[in-house]
Amino acid sequence: MNKLTIGQLIRKLRKEKRLSLRDLANMINMSHVNIAHIENDRVVTNKRTLIDIASALEYDRDKLLAIADEIGDDIKQIIKNKPSAVPQFLRTAKNLSTDDWEKLSQMAKKLEKNNKDV
User: Fold this and answer.
1) Residue 50's CB: how many other CB atoms inside 10 A?
2) Separation between Cα atoms, residue 117 and residue 99, nearest integer Å
3) Do 15 and 42 belong to one domain?
4) How many CA within 13 A on the CB side of residue 49?
5) Residue 116 confidence class, pLDDT cut points 50, 70, 90
6) Domain containing 111: what range?
7) What is the pLDDT of residues 14-31, one digit of tens each?
8) Does 1 map to a domain?
């Protein structure tokens, strides 16, 4: 199976939602022509627009940004605040299963809650 481009994915998601180009454009306050250019991979769009598109299409913004080889500003800030810890953690955890990642996420949420309670 071929990997979808960002434009192909956006078109696929839009069609699954049964939205026209104009519908999606109106949802994110953009020209339908610009949406068509994005879907046809004629232009590279900015992160803000990708986040707006993800929201309008009810798609995970981090997944859409990753496909576009971008990361959210909040993630950049986390990495910036912990420049050695985050990459080290990711390299250590890179071979974990999806279930393991979910367990880690739950543990992190518990730690965060415990830290707030203290």
Assistant:
1) 22
2) 27
3) yes
4) 19
5) confident
6) 82-117
7) 999 999 999 999 999 999
8) no
**pTM (2 decimals)?**
0.77
Measured CA to CA, the distance from residue 110 to residue 15 in angstroms comes to 38
Q: Which of 9, 7, 36, 6 is nearest to 21 (CA)?
A: 36
CA distance 50 to 52: 5
Cα first-last separation, the chain: 50
The pLDDT tens digits for 43-91 are 989 999 999 999 999 999 999 999 999 998 999 999 999 999 998 999 9
Strands (DSSP E) found in 64-113: none
23: domain CATH number is 1.10.260.40
Q: Is 45 within a domain?
A: yes
- Please identify which residue in the block is written with the tokens 């004629």: 42
